[in-house]
């Protein structure tokens, strides 16, 4: 809260020239970002070293000053890494904390580092570097998750389970095929990550405050030194743009949605009623009151993390939507959203990878469920089309009558005696029993991308070659 002492505070070291007194305490609190942007220290120092090196190369600062600056920055890097750096909220953000410390370490030469740049292009640079590294990490984590699914799919290419629509038993599928559905989803997430890396691979430094600079800088040199493909092409856009952060959040939101659907399936599958999978102790907890319980907490938390990630995406879109070009301080609020979403996404992918690798699959339960609910009714209809020449619509009707009869007798389709089936349609022969088992049903679905074990193995081979 504001109090009288604020007036006696010294004005800000960096921009305080025209201010008579220090900022009000509330102002300091709302203005400071050091609490979260200190995460960018390594990127900030790397960016400054590249900038100073370029300034010296272009003859804008002396080599002697550049050497002092680079040495000082490296000292600060090790101070921060070893926890021996005192961050100050009065110095607002990571950029000014580093620069102030540099001045203490090397004296007046420190004042030359900020030539031909502004905090606007500096923060755009630091944040882009951070998001790029996070995307690279995400790409690797998705690769590990895909690998976990490929192993499970291979192991269960022939294991039958019920396939669902509307969460009602639809047609039998294999567990391997179901696993490969997730491989497709996470494969798309990974290609979105790769595209995002391509989009953001342009260096902002040198756009300066918004208009570029009169100093003879070389933006191609700094871009190259920092591992970017090329410099950005418009200085106004450069300091206004946070698309790279929003793209990261949208990718995280879509991947989060996929992870959450998987989490929901694991929650359902691990209930005693389904009993399709059993989570390892490592990814579940017990109840403090009900000794029999094993709760899928990790899956539930993955499902919940998705809510946070979506919140971050909506927050940043909303922060940005009304901003005139170029930089506005609103944009400082970008970082916490991205940092929080990145942490949630990393945790969610890691937890899912562990769960998928560790869970025990109960193939007997899956097989029993696969045959219930008249899941091979479509196979009967298809047989009537193929073998008895019925139009599919008529076959559908005949099959419906067979299902109703089986239901009234409390048995499966395959358990209906031939005489019953022939009473419904005279052309039915005992050959029909060959298509009424779940194994036969699954094996028959050899269409490209279908659930037949041979097709699932083809899909696995495709992804193994790409993972
Ligand atoms: N801490 C600021 C941010 O994160 C740095 C840029 C400040 N620029 C400015 N002109 N005040 O956005």
UniProtKB/TrEMBL annotation:
Belongs to the lyase 1 family. Argininosuccinate lyase subfamily. This is Argininosuccinate lyase. One of its GO terms (molecular function) is argininosuccinate lyase activity. The gene is argH. It comes from Rhizobium brockwellii. Residues 17-311 form the Fumarate lyase N-terminal domain. PANTHER family: ARGININOSUCCINATE LYASE (PTHR43814). It catalyses: 2-(N(omega)-L-arginino)succinate = fumarate + L-arginine. Residues 374-443 form the Argininosuccinate lyase C-terminal domain.
